[in-house]
Amino acid sequence: ATFCNMFAVWLALGALVAAKYPPSFMWVKSEYFTMLLGLLMFSVGITTTLADFSQSLAHPGVIAINFTLCYGVMPVLAYVIAMAIEADGAILAGMVLVGAINGGQASNLCALIAGGDVALSVLMTASTTLGCIVMTPTICKFALHTVVPVDAVGIVFSTMEVVLAPILLGVGLNTLAPKFCGAVKPFTPVVGVICTVLLVGASVAKCAAAILGAGLPLQLALLVLHLLGGVLGYGVTYMAGASESTCRTVAIEASMKSSAFSFLLASLHFDAPNVRVPSSVSVVWMSIVGSLLAVYWKTKPVAA
Q1: Taking the CB of the first residue and of the last residue of the chain, which one, N or C, has fewer CB atoms within 10 A?
Q2: Rounded distance between C-alpha atoms, residue 167 and residue 141, angstroms
Q3: Which residues have CB under 8 Å from 175's CB, separation 6+?
Q4: What is the DSSP letter of 241?
Q5: How many other C-beta atoms can be found within 10 angstroms of the C-beta atom of residue 235?
């Protein structure tokens, strides 16, 4: 419990070490990312059941709220914040790309630690991940007058490989061996925390120079973007009459973005190298914001 309560500390330390001394995390190669993400999702999956997913599917309105926040609100916020700091064209494009990307897989771990609805978190992550096939290129074309090609088939297969398959394996194991899963359940957040720290550290190490050279205004801009996502996620869901557990889940989901994927798109589809910088900075801040929310709510259990 103490280890998981320090989730944000481990992330901050990992990011700091990776930024100051990139070789410390360079051993985590890109080809390890799929394995680590899969292990992260499996550690979440064995804490859930088919009944959890069935109950979450009975509330499609909440999934729609999160989808709207992800693709209707966050890109606008990113644009407004970028204009407020008088960002140049490349940084503005990178900010919008971060705002227009799908939710990150680490949100599922944070929902678990926070006492949120894990099954709902997984469904929301899957919906925005599949939604980015259409939404991310559309938003970039509309807001930036730029066509950002997205490998639709690749995203579908990645979603199945990294999100759905590990979750289904975990749920299946929980169904077949509930006593075993119950025994290891206290340790699954630890596995998730370690995987997340390795993923964040490796991502930071690969673009350490860009992060260190980003400057304070951009650092604060991305911190504010992810914080506002969390506040709006909680507030809108609360006003819709959702439960405390659901409000926490949407807050975490809305605050956390797949920054690594936005970095990849920026690298592949924009000529200006600085478009990648906001994604690099976002990797750090979205992880810290999500983990802080998770640890804070972990100390305030939801009433039964």
Answers
A1: C
A2: 33
A3: 49, 50
A4: T
A5: 14
The sign one gets for the Cα dihedral 148, 152, 156, 161 is: negative
Q: Report in angstroms the alpha-carbon separations of 7 from 38, 246, 270.
A: 19, 21, 34
**How far lies 106's CA from each of 16, 209, 275, 286, in Å?**
19, 24, 23, 10
- Alpha carbon separation from 304 to 58, 59, 62, 297 (Å, rounded): 20, 19, 21, 15
- Letter for the amino acid at 283? V
From the list 112, 101, 98, 102, the residue with the least C-alpha distance to 41 is 112
- Residue-wise pLDDT tens digits, 234-276: 999 999 999 999 999 999 999 999 887 888 788 777 778 888 8
Distance CA 274, CA 132 (A): 22
Residue 213 CB coordination number (10 Å) = 11
Q: For residue range 196-246, list pLDDT tens digits in order.
A: 888 888 888 887 887 888 789 999 999 999 999 999 999 999 999 999 999
Distance of alpha carbon 39 from alpha carbon 281, whole angstroms: 25
Q: Which residue from 134, 140, 128 is spatially nearest to 252, judged by alpha carbons?
A: 128
Question: Cβ distance 83 to 92 under 8 Å?
Answer: yes
- Give the residue, 225 or 152, on which the prediction is more confident: 225
Helices 188-206 + 7-20 axis angle, to 10: 20
Structure tokens at 165: 């398959």
The DSSP 8-state label assigned to residue 271 in this structure reads S
> d(Cα 266, Cα 270) in Å, to the nearest integer?
5
d(CA 293, CA 48): 21
Whole-number Å distance between alpha carbons of 110 and 250: 11
